[in-house]
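name: query_chain
kind: protein
chains: 1
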Amino acid sequence: PSQKWNDTLNKGHHRSALNFVIWFIPNLIKAVLYELYMFVLGIQDSWFYDSPLSQLGISQVDKLHVFLKKGLGLTTREKELISIMCGDPDAPPSRLVSSSLRRAISTVAICFQERMKRLPNETILVLPSLQEISRNPDTLSITPPYTPVTASWIERDSSACAFQDVFTNRTDMSLHKGNKPINTNGLKRMKEFCKYVFSQRDTEAFIVGGHSIWFRAFFQNFLPHDEDHVAKKRKIVNAGAVGFTLMKVSTPQGEKYMIDPKSVTVIYGGF
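structure:
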């Protein structure tokens, strides 16, 4: 979903190039001044670092939330995936997981608030392996290790979700060790995620709140190399949802992971 970093520095699809150019300098000045204001006051928040959902981003996620509430699917496969996402009683056991970046956790909090109300013991598990691939400031976590996320100034004024309550009481930060270390990279984290998934024998499905570059890289690495698939070339749209089956095989060279290309299913938004 759209975030403050993108709203300030990227045109996006929601406005014309002319509008973006005209407002670029004023918006950048506003962002820098607000960043300075928060820094001077010692507020644990940021416009650029670990950039939060913008108002546009919250509205994009809320549309996915409404879509899931309706529970509509055109095909049997889509209906099965939506049922898993909603945590229906007859669906396979599933787990909500998220990147440590604020906008990803916020996305999961908005989308699955009905599920979490119905399942009072449900939590969002933060996995360090899902943190976005890049060294841009918006991909760096500002949340201290093992500490609940602090709602952004935008989320505190939003009625889309009880953000701080979810962050404090319904988000599991036990695996969050702070920002990604400099000795890691995207491929290492993706393999760590695969290893974690297959270590959880009681969970058949994972609902992942993540990032478009991470997911594109995941498809590029784990779809068959000779598979010409759109997921390798294009990013998932803001607040999009895509389902797939991840497989594992043990070889003399170690464990190998692969996405079944026939299983890739657009649930909402697409690429």
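note: The CA atoms of residues 104 and 209 lie 5 Å apart.
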